[in-house]
Each structure stands twice: as structure tokens, then as C-alpha cells.
Amino acid sequence: MKILQLYPKSDYFTGAAMQLRGLALGLAARGHHVVVATRPNPHWERACAAGHVLHASVPMRSALDLRSAWALARLIREHQIEIVHCQKGRARTLALLAGLAVKIPVLVLNRGVSFPLDRWNRLGYTTSRVTAIVAVCESIKRGLVAAGVPAAKVDVIYSGTDPGRFHPGVDGRRIRPEPGLGPDPVLVPPGPGAITGVSTARASRREPVRPRPA
After folding, report:
1. Best label site of 83, 103, 134, 189, fewest CB within 10 Å?
2. pTM of the predicted model, to two decimals?
């Protein structure tokens, strides 16, 4: 298959970017022709080259960046893309605009947030030009269905972590000195609405910790 992964951001060291990188490299390793389009960033260029994945730099300054939509249409036509996979809302809108100039056989969207859909966003998900939507949990799928998206069009694929790479036994000595942590404190990544401001000194001494709201 010929697949375009569309990521309208330049960041590389983030969870979403790493998931996209793993997806693109995994598809390429299975013999698919993969093109990754991002905003300009040399990290993406090097990572894609190392994984035998083509990279395209596209400005994608806004959802209504017509020049970028035209550039994506040329990219789709040049590589005879069969599947366009949009990783963010801006990518969805740009792909729909590009689809006015070139045929997109299969258009797949990602949905990773549960914010209610406004009228404009609802149109972007319910249009018949969208083939399928990947939701990261059942509650997000329910929200899409409530907004008018056919349930059969939405597949739930939960985010995952490779326990072979990320587990309590990972050697974290390289990163602990930067925030002033010793070897003992257990680090828990904050999630939405998490509390921050824990004193690293107190944690190192195993004293009771009273977190401050962020």
C-alpha cells in the first residue's frame, strides 16, 4: 500500500510524534510505501531517512493553508497515495481541501480527545469523504457516534506502551541528575489535571510529600 501519514506539527520528542514514528517505520518494515509529511524539522528528516521512509516538509501553518493543501495534493498525486492517515484536526481539514484537487481513495482520521465537536468539526468527521476514524478509547467513540458519525466507521485502538522498553527496571541514571533526583524516588508522569510542584529534595529524603496544585 502507498500511505501518507500527515502530521501538521514540527515537534519530534513528544508522545504523539513517537507513536507516528513507530507506526511509519513499522509499516515501511512490512513492505508498504510510506510518506510522512510534517512541518519542517531536521529530526523528522533524519528519523525517516534512517527508517527508509520518505519525508516531506509542508508548512501547514493553519487548517486553511491553501498553499499547503495544494502541496499535499501534489504529493498524493506524485506518490499515487492510496491511504491518507491524518494525525491531528488540522491535518484532517488540509486533507479534505487537498481532496478537492486529487482523489483520496481512503481517508483515515485519528481522534484522541473527548472535547465536544462544534459544527465545523462535526462536518469534518461526519462527511462521507472520511473512510474510517481511529478513536483511542470507547468514550471518544461514543462521543463521535452521538455527534452523528456511524458507529461502524469508528474503530477503537488503545494507546499502548512497549513493556520491553519501558518498565521499572529501566536504567534512569542518565536523566535523574538533571532535576536533582537521587536513585530512590519513584517518578510518575503527570496526566491531565495532575498536581505538580513536588519538592525533589523532600522526595529524595523520602519525607511525606504534599503536592501543590499546578
Report:
1. 189
2. 0.78
Q: Band of the pLDDT at 195, cuts 50, 70, 90? A: very low
- Cα angle 80, 86, 91 (rounded to 5 degrees) comes to 100
Instruction: Tell me the per-residue pLDDT of 19-66, one tens digit each, with 9 for 90 and over.
Output: 899 999 999 999 999 999 999 999 999 999 999 999 999 999 999 999
pLDDT band at 187 (very low <50, low <70, confident <90, very high): low
Same domain, 91 and 135: yes
CB 40 within 8 Å of CB 11: no
- In whole angstroms, what is the distance from residue 194 CA to residue 213 CA? 8
Domain hosting 6: range is 2-156
Whole-angstrom CA distances from 79 to 38, 82, 121 are 16, 9, 28
CA angle 68, 26, 151 (to 5 degrees): 70
Let me know whether 146 and 186 are in one domain. Answer: no
Query: Do both 139 and 213 map to the same domain?
Result: no
